[in-house]
Amino acid sequence: MLLLMGCTGNGVGDSGPPPLVSPLTDDQIASFDVLRVKEVVDELGSDAYAGRTPGSLGHAQAVTWLEQRMEEVGLEPVGDQGFRQHFELSLTGRYAPDEQGDIVEIEVDQGINLAGLISGVERPEELIVVMAHHDHLGTTREGEVYNGAYDDLTGVAMLLEIARLIRDEGVQPERSILFLITDGEEGGLKGAEAWVEQAPWDLSQVIAALSVDPMGRPMLPDAWPLVLLGMERSPELKSLFRDMGRSWSAPPVHFVNRSAIPIFASDQDPFWEAPQPIAAGWVTSPGFTWYHTIDDEPETIDYRTVQDHGRFLAQALVYMADSEERWTDAGEQELTLEDAQDAIDLMDTVLGSSVISDGERAKAGGLQRDFERLAAEGSIDDAEARPIVAEAMLFIMNDLAQAHPGPVPAPMPRPQR
To answer: How far apart are CA 154 and CA 33, in angstroms?
Structure first.
């Protein structure tokens, strides 16, 4: 994730429409293997790849390794050179080891996206795009490595595992699904921007796009909701994800209006900014304890979150690919009563934790009362609500994460069939 500057419940016993029927069988869902995810995170998140900043030796090695993995899981290459899509990229102030092992400032003039496809069986010309970024920040001047396990290797590894599940389990989506592993995200979303500009696809046939970034850390040790940002831009897509979350996700699925927190960005933004804006959303697990620090290492990933979020995303992607719906982007939206209720529900999840302090409980309760007051007025004053939403998100992403990194449980055993 690049630093720039509502909740459905857990789906069990919620009131509302009948649950959606999953496009995957229980056995297919259970085959999502967190140990395969861990293999990718442990490999590319090791110091050997020196933080994978574009232009570095570690970055080049990571690209080669990912190409091999994409081929192994059965993706069809759709770049300009195999899986690779090359694009111009200029970055400064990045450091990594050279061939002699000396830490040097890296000269960058090219980025490399990796694009692999699962072709649809009924409407192959229609495309669902799911993205995660493989680049990170390199090293410090002293050689300390920004491993970038949470941001965003776990997202990359989850995409590879979802692709493997679809292939190995014989799932045949009706629309095509593009697994786009972007570069240059940390340099200004340049990889996603380049794909939109150079896409070997009619953009009018790109039905929706999701950026999965960052992933793999819980908000609190006993609470790991999935948070979706920007869905308010496509009310039909948000409604679908609300229903999917209610139906298939054990952890809560929450929604946050993206326009209230412009300080952060991810790869969905260029899809919103396309000549014909594309319905898109940002998917994250908000456990930002070691975000953009040298402590974001593979050992900090919590594979409970990976399993729950990965299984949900696998079902969501196949459902979207099988759907006959076409979702639209309505542009940036002011805050509404629905956004206030989403924020109230998000605070409910925080308040349901048994590990927060009295002070944190008071803070969450105060924010919840602020949203309840706004909702009780019958309409939302956008200017008044925005700073409260921003305060709530920074409380979750910074304050809670820093105060409660929590123990990292052992990886779960491989699924048994």
So the answer is: 13
| b/e code 83-121 from CB counts within 10 Å (16+ = b) | bbbebebebeebbbbeeeeebeebebeebbbbbbbbebe
Identify the CA nearest to 224 among candidates 288, 160, 153, 146. 288
Residues 398-415 as b or e (16 or more Cβ within 10 Å = b)? eebbeebbbeeeebeeee
CA-to-CA distance for 415 and 417, rounded, in angstroms? 7
d(CA 196, CA 85): 12
Helices (H) and strands (E) in the chain, counts: 12, 13
- Distance between CA atoms of residues 93 and 55, nearest Å: 12
Name every residue whose Cβ is closer than 8 Å to that of residue 42 and which is 6 or more positions away in sequence: 298
pLDDT tens-digit map of 356-395 = 999 999 999 999 999 999 889 888 888 899 999 989 988 9
Burial class (CB in 10 A: 0-12, 13-18, 19+), 128: buried
Residues in CB range of 289: below 8 A, 6 or more apart: 217, 295, 300, 401, 402, 405
Which residues, in sequence order, are CB contacts of 181 under 8 Å at separation 6+? 66, 70, 113, 114, 115, 116, 131, 132, 133, 134, 156, 159
Measured CA to CA, the distance from residue 191 to residue 180 in angstroms comes to 9
| Cα within 13 Å of Cα(246), Cβ side | 17
DSSP string covering 177-217, please?
Answer: EEEEEES-GGGTSHHHHHHHHH-SS-GGGEEEEEEE-S-S-
pLDDT per position as a tens digit, 284-328 = 999 998 999 999 999 999 999 999 999 999 999 999 999 999 999
